[in-house]
Design goal:
Strand order of the largest sheet: 3-4-5-8-9-10-11-12
Shape: flat
GO molecular function: oxidoreductase activity
Keywords: NADP, Oxidoreductase
Protein name: NADP-dependent oxidoreductase domain-containing protein
Helix content: 25-40%
Number of helices: 43
Structural class: alpha/beta
Radius of gyration: 36 Å
CATH architecture of the largest domain: Alpha-Beta Barrel
Pfam family, one: Aldo_ket_red
Distance between the termini: 11 Å
InterPro entries: Aldo-Keto_reductase (IPR050791), NAD(P)_OxRdtase_dom_sf (IPR036812), NADP_OxRdtase_dom (IPR023210)
Number of strands: 47
Length: about 1250
């Protein structure tokens, strides 16, 4: 291997390695991305070999190549390399777009710095030249970045000689990157001489002719489907036949020289001069080593001439690129005198009109405007963000949307519009992320409340004060801000007087949580009433060429009161952009498919409107969407349209509408196209709330639902299984202390939950269904209540009326006397009155006067214990009960609705963990589709709070997504409470094949990857997941030992390792734990592996202790597995084995019934009884299963019971192996001797 020397690149002081490494193919363009650990290892190998000049770009991936480099530069590598990246080439809708305007240059640089995770870029190239921006402008911005210390040197790529000269006059150019190889030599005529004249270094990319000079036509035969070289002119059949002769001649000469053809081709570039640095790309260490060796290949002048003759201009067939790609041949830019700050030529509004006419529209400057009369100033045009996350098809990629929002803000569009119902919630979360890094201070943010979606997407409109406040708090949290600029009521709650809703919003203004109040889809009278309580800043309404009904009354009302107007859907839901094509291309879940105007009977007529707009736009030299938007902008300087988009091209086009001027005659003509009788179909389906049905009841009708100061008995109606009961009761305890409730109750709750709740604050009563035909509560719940002195409230004591008169279901309420309920001091009537059926569930609501009279009669009869809930109606039952003056007599009560896990020493090295762990694999992989992230985070938090602190994951689960999930779950102080184990060593290749890796570079790269995904500094227990039988275990453990010494891991573990492998590893560094499959029906480890662990003081972690779930539910498990659950393929679950195996479960289940526990608890208890050095890690994705598993800790087994259990699953009884035969387990995990290892 030749020594890689150093060279001066250009005359500005940059020194680099004589040969660089092009990293593009690792992530993009040349087939699918390559495995990250392999690429990081390759980069590290390159640096160690002396190749320190690394080349990337923000367009490679896009972005993923920079992210890869950022990871590779960790651990002190950054200081050893010269890093070049590029900006200016991007893709939009699959089209190649070039950008060089200052705002883009700066944003691109900030993005690259962030992705690379560095403070300064060594060499920053303009990747392609933006021919709409004078190069002086682009270089001027780069010069500022140099002065700010964000970049050191400036470069150009694919630039013409004249562009290079003009750029160099603004700031010295350090290097020009160009394609230069044996068969790409056109740069020698003008560009190379210009660079040398100006002292500019030359970086040769594709020095091996895109790989062709390495392997000839074989290259093309082996290209994967996504490799863009397949489309290059030189590789097309009509050219390839002639071009392969070039390779054959190079190959022949290489054979004579004793080198490879690629070395010969690279040597030719190296011989061009000491100002030239080639940057061949590769994804394989062997190819990299071969490229370095080219430095030692010497060529005589005669050999140089001979080589050049092989690829003379007329011998090379086909251009370098397809003709639509920008190269130096079309890289001249307009003169500086043509540039006006803030104006950029938009080259991408190049469609529309029947004859595919092209329009070029200059991007207008986005001015500022006063929105309303209360002081809010916004951009003249806003950005509607709904479609990024909801309603208009599936959510769009988050990074793209964040880039779009940043671009909008940089372009002057600073008024951003969202709502809590978009997603729901996800659009606000997206905006919250986009506002980071100083963006929040540059924008005006509007969000909305008032539309709530329940299960099944049933819509409910809410405007009651508690909802308003809770919604605001939720939005503030999701947006991660302290104050909302403009907070709209999205739809009007016609059950709540508007004065009540605005009154609560007014409080939020006074508290500094919102600045300005807005309404959306509100009638004129509602606007007036709201404005009388607190000034309304803006009203949002649908206003466009074909939606003009608001002009009659609402717009005049707003203008009279000084209220700003925000026009949503100004492009008619996109119809005024592309007509009927919009409908043809809508995805299945795009809600526009169901809008009346887009139904076939209406669409046929409505398309004429678009055609006429399109025709007029063509005459005006703009697009139809610009014309339609311009019409809205011309409505007055109090109107701000907020067109939505998910594409930068469309955003630019929308901004261009600001420069479209319309005469009064043109306005009239446009309006005639969409006259009221010409537009067919309503805006929404008839069941949707709009301003037409938004009037609210008078204020005099309103009372708070119960209109009381304190609730006597406040139940948790149903238990939220995602939230530890201690948390809920803790909040209820605070409400008791604040005097808002007197006593706490629970409803429909298990005995263990009652005990846990009672330990936080005394529970006064438990409500449960108890009647002649509902008696299951008698077994455990009733005794628990009596033991703890908790009162019992029996609901449905008449079997929902059935036990009154059978099928007639006649009410027959008896009167009662007073007695004590529970031991906390609450006194109630001996019988209560359940009020639910008066308002909900049992048919339509009953007449209010009749129900009030019934309640009065009940109270007068001594039945003073009244039962309601906020969900009955919802809300109307509480309002009913709050209406009459029997508070002094009636006692209102309102529904709101485990074993201890010890600690253990795991092994003898000092690691302490919970007695039982939590296997997290099934949350993300292998056991069916990934489970919802919020649910899994809540489950992990519940586990930790319950004492299960030993969490188990692996980089192969997902792959990677399980670690990312755990990383999120560990935020907010959880990390300090857990012992975290993860694993490395199983790699999944692009074709889905598994490979076991234990070589040092992989071990290190895998660890770095896990640390980053988990977002932690150190892993508590790091297992080798499967043993790499090609690498001596001493080598792998040696690298792990270094990671311990570096503080990146605390303890080392092995998984599925043989006894001999465990011994050899332990001799290098103490092993803390071995993970193995151990359960009632997987006991082969007991023969040798377990005794070895115990002899060496190694802890034992039992995975799949429930037999992959079989000991929870037997063969039922298999019936319910999803199609992609890998358990379907396990031998024990195949039909020929399952029939026998299900007998095992049946016997376990029978014994569990006798023991008073579940079969899973019994199976787990068997493991817990194996010894205090064993920690099982059952996995689950459900809270109730976790609680069930924890309960196993308290199940006690006698030696006789242990023996009996083991007999159920004796070796001859269990049918089928653990895994298919090709999987690595401890049985085939021995590694070669250390003496066999050679470090390459």
């Amino acid at each position: 291997m030749a020594k890689v020397g150093r060279m001066k690149l250009g005359s500005q002081g940059l020194e680099v390695s004589q040969q660089g490494l092009g990293c593009m193919g690792m992530s993009a363009f040349y087939g699918p991305p390559k495995p990250e650990p392999d690429m990081i290892s390759l980069i590290h190998h390159a640096v160690q070999s002396g190749v320190t000049f690394l080349d990337t770009s923000d367009v490679y991936g896009p972005h993923t190549n920079e992210i890869l480099l950022g990871k590779a530069l960790k651990g002190g590598i950054r200081e050893k390399v010269e890093l070049a990246t590029k900006f200016g080439a991007t893709y939009s809708e699959g089209k190649f777009v070039v950008r060089g305007d200052p705002a883009y240059v700066r944003a691109a640089c900030e993005g690259s710095l962030k992705r690379l995770d560095i403070d300064c870029i060594d060499l920053y190239y303009q990747h392609r030249i933006d021919t709409s921006v004078p190069v002086e402008v682009t270089i001027g911005e780069l010069k500022k970045l140099v002065e700010e210390g964000k970049i050191k040197y400036i470069g150009l790529s694919e630039a013409s000689a004249s562009t290079i000269r003009r750029a160099h006059a603004v700031h010295p150019i350090t290097a020009v990157q160009l394609e230069w190889s044996l068969w790409s030599r056109d740069v020698e005529e003008d560009i190379i001489p210009t660079c040398r004249e100006l002292g500019i270094g030359i970086v040769a990319y594709s020095p091996l002719g895109r790989g062709f000079l390495s392997s000839g036509s074989k290259l093309i035969e082996n290209l994967p489907e996504g490799d863009y070289r397949k489309n290059m002119p030189r590789f097309q059949p009509e050219n390839l036949e002639a071009n392969k002769t070039i390779f054959e001649r190079v190959n022949e000469m290489a054979a004579k020289k004793g080198c490879t053809p690629s070395q010969l081709a690279l040597a030719w570039v190296h011989h061009q001069g000491n100002d030239v640095c080639p940057i061949p790309g590769t994804t394989k260490v062997e190819n990299f080593n071969q490229n370095i060796a080219a430095l030692s290949v010497k060529l005589t002048p005669q050999e140089m001439t001979e080589l050049e003759s092989f690829a003379a201009t007329d011998a090379v067939k086909g251009d370098r690129y397809p003709e639509n790609i920008t190269t130096w041949k079309k890289a001249n830019t307009p003169p500086l005198s043509s540039w006006k700050p803030g104006i950029q030529i938009d080259r991408h509004i190049l469609h529309h009109s029947l004859e595919a006419q092209h329009h070029t529209t200059a991007m207008a400057k986005v001015g500022r405007m006063k929105l309303g009369s209360q002081g809010l100033e916004v951009s003249q045009q806003g950005l509607g963000c709904m479609g990024m996350s909801a309603f208009y098809g599936p959510p769009k990629p988050e990074p793209d949307m964040i880039s779009l929002i940043h671009y909008a803000a940089q372009s002057g569009v600073t008024f951003l519009d969202t709502s809590d119902v978009y997603g729901p919630h996800t659009n606000e979360i997206l905006l919250g992320k986009a506002l980071k890094g100083g963006v929040r201070e540059k924008v005006e943010l509007a969000t909305k409340f008032g539309i709530s979606m329940s299960d099944g997407f049933k819509v409910e409109i809410r405007g009651d004060p508690s909802y308003v406040r809770a919604a605001c708090e939720g939005s503030l949290k999701r947006l991660d801000i302290d104050c909302i600029d403009l907070y709209y009521q999205h739809r009007i709650d016609t059950r709540v007087p508007i004065e009540v809703t605005i009154g609560e919003l007014k409080k939020l203004v006074e508290e500094g949580k919102i600045k300005y109040i807005g309404l959306s889809e509100a009638s004129a009278s509602t606007i007036r009433r709201a404005h009388a309580v607190h000034p309304i800043t803006a009203v949002q309404l649908e206003w466009s060429l074909w939606s003009r009904d608001v002009e009659e009354e609402i717009v005049p009302t707003c203008r009279e009161l000084g209220i700003g107007i925000v026009a949503y859907s100004p492009l008619g839901r996109g119809f005024l952009s592309s007509g009927t094509k919009l409908i043809e291309n809508l995805s299945e879940n795009d809600f526009r498919k169901y809008m009346p105007r887009f139904q076939p009977e209406n669409l046929e007529k409505n398309k004429t409107i678009f055609e006429r707009v399109n025709e007029m736009a063509a005459k005006k030299g703009c697009t139809p969407s610009q014309l339609a938007l311009a019409w809205v902008h011309h409505q007055g300087n109090d109107v701000c349209p907020i067109p939505g988009t998910t594409k930068i091209d469309n955003l630019n086009q929308n901004i261009g509408a600001l420069s479209v001027k319309l005469t009064p005659q043109e306005m009239t003509e446009l309006e005639s196209f969409a006259a009221a009788d010409a537009v067919k179909g309503d805006r929404y389906a008839s069941d949707i709330t709009t301003w037409k049905n938004s009037d609210t009841p008078p204020l005099s009708s309103w009372k708070d639902r119960l209109d009381i100061d304190c609730i006597d008995l406040y139940y948790q109606h149903r238990i939220d299984t995602r939230v530890p009961i201690e948390i809920t009761i803790g909040e209820l305890k605070k409400l008791v202390e604040e005097g808002k409730i007197k006593y706490i109750g629970l409803s429909e709750v298990s005995a263990s939950t009652i005990r846990r709740a009672h330990a936080v604050h005394p529970i006064s009563a438990v409500q449960l269904e108890w009647s002649l035909w509902s008696r299951d509560a008698e077994e455990e719940v009733i005794p628990t209540c009596r033991e703890l002195g908790i009162g019992i409230v029996a609901y449905n004591p008449l079997g929902r009326g059935f036990l009154s008169s059978g099928t007639k279901l006649l009410e027959n309420l008896s009167e009662g006397d007073l007695r004590q309920l529970g031991s906390q001091g609450l006194e109630v009537s001996q019988q209560g009155l359940g009020c639910m059926g008066m308002s909900a569930v049992y048919g339509p609501p009953k007449p209010e006067p009749d129900m009030v009279a019934l309640i009065q009669h009940a109270v007068q009869s001594g039945v003073t214990f009244l039962d309601t809930a906020d969900v009955y109606g919802p809300h109307t039952n509480e309002i009913l009960i709050g209406k009459d003056d029997f508070r002094k007599q009636a006692h209102h009560h309102h529904n709101t609705a485990m074993a201890k896990v010890g600690r253990m020493k795991l092994g003898s090295q000092g690691l302490e963990v919970s007695q039982q762990g939590l296997g997290c694999m099934g949350m993300s992989a292998y056991y069916g589709p990934p489970k919802p992230e919020p649910d899994m985070v809540a489950l992990i938090h519940h586990a930790v709070q319950s004492g299960v602190t030993f969490l188990d994951t692996s980089d192969v689960y997902g792959p990677h997504t399980n670690e990312i999930l755990i990383g999120k779950a560990l935020s907010g102080g959880v990390r300090e409470k857990v012992e975290l184990a993860t694993k490395f060593g199983i790699r999944i290749s692009d074709d889905g094949k598994y490979e076991n890796r234990g070589d040092p570079s992989y071990v290190r790269a895998a660890c770095e990857g896990s640390l980053k995904r988990l977002d932690i500094d150190c892993i508590d227990l790091y297992y080798q997941h499967r043993i790499d039988t090609r690498v001596p275990i001493e080598i792998t453990t040696g690298e792990l030992k270094k990671l311990v010494e570096e503080g990146k891991i605390k303890y080392i573990g092995l998984s599925e390792a043989s006894a001999s492998t465990i011994r050899r590893a332990h001799a290098v560094h103490p092993i803390s734990a071995v993970q193995l499959e151990w359960s009632l029906w997987s006991r082969d480890v007991e023969e040798e592996v377990i005794p070895t662990c115990r002899e060496l003081g190694i802890g034992i972690v039992a995975y799949s202790p429930l037999g992959c779930g079989f000991f929870s539910s037997g063969s039922k498990l298999l019936d319910n597995l999803s199609q992609d659950d890998f358990r379907k393929a396990l031998p024990k679950f195949q039909p020929e084995n399952l029939e026998s195996n299900k007998t095992i479960f049946e016997r376990v289940n029978e014994m569990a019934s006798k023991k008073g526990c579940t079969p899973s608890q019994l199976a787990l208890a068997w493991l817990h009884h194996q010894g205090n050095d064993v920690c099982p890690i059952p996995g689950t994705t459900k809270l109730e299963n976790l609680n069930n598993n924890i309960g196993a800790v308290s199940v006690k087994l006698t030696p006789q019971e242990m023996t009996e259990l083991e007999s159920f699953a004796a070796a001859g009884v269990v049918k089928g192996g653990r895994y298919a035969g090709d999987l690595i387990t401890w049985r085939n995990s021995d590694t070669p001797p250390l003496s066999s290892w050679n470090v390459v």
